[in-house]
Amino acid sequence: MKRTAVIAIGFLTLAACGERPETAAQATSATTPAPAQAGVMTPVVAQMAIAPVASDLARVCRAGLAAIHEQAVDALAVDSLEGGVASLSWPAPVDGGRMRAQCRLEGDRIVWKPLDRPVSEQNRWMIAASDPIVRATVDGDRIIISTMSAELPLATTSFTLPSEQG
């Protein structure tokens, strides 16, 4: 029981500071091996970059919210991009309406907020210590979303979304 409490407090502490623990970086690099450099494994995060341009913001937010809400990435529509914030919507799974949320990037962290919760206080940016931390890495058309929280183990999902260049 004490071990569980210590582990939970450790995860909450890591979530509160917004830093990715070394084990999460290693888990991410384990899913996509990096080239060996003198026997040292380099985390994938260091090799990939998220360019905060409008097309990458839209792609990363679509992938991130698809992972968070367990939706097909094609179901999410980007309704607008304004001031570094993407507004997205997707079909509501229960009543056939539309779910809506906003998304922004803080480095490799995806920060989002729901817009349709019945209690207005719940329509807030998901940055509290108790909220899962969602991070993204971009490798060309591939976007890798990693989610971690105190209650759940690290989850990694990969999406292929072509960049919208035109």
Task: Describe the structure concisely for a colleague.
With 166 residues, this protein is an alpha+beta fold. The protein has helices at 2-17, 22-31, 44-47, 54-68; strands at 77-82, 85-91, 98-106, 109-114, 133-139, 142-148, 155-160. It has one domain (2-32, 42-160).
Explain the overall architecture.
By secondary structure, this protein is of the alpha+beta class. The protein has one domain. Helix content is 27%, strand content 29%. It has four helices and seven strands, in the order ααααβββββββ. The protein has helices spanning 2-17, 22-31, 44-47, 54-68; strands at residues 77-82, 85-91, 98-106, 109-114, 133-139, 142-148, 155-160. A seven-stranded antiparallel β-sheet has the order 1-2-3-4-5-6-7, with helices on one face. β3 (98-106) and β4 form a beta hairpin. The N and C termini lie far apart (57 Å).
What summary fits the major beta sheet?
A: 7 strands, antiparallel
Number of strands: 7
What is the H/E order?
Answer: HHHHEEEEEEE
Instruction: Please bin the fraction of helical residues.
Output: 25-40%
Share in β-strands: 25-35%
Query: What is the gyration radius calculated from CA atoms?
Result: 17 Å
Integer count of domains: 1
Counting helices, strands and paired strands, the structural category is alpha+beta
What characteristic shape results from the CA principal axes? globular
Average predicted local confidence, pLDDT: 75
Kindly report the spatial arrangement of strands forming the biggest sheet.
1-2-3-4-5-6-7
Number of helices: 4
Low-pLDDT residue spans: 1-6, 10-48
Distance between the termini: 57 Å
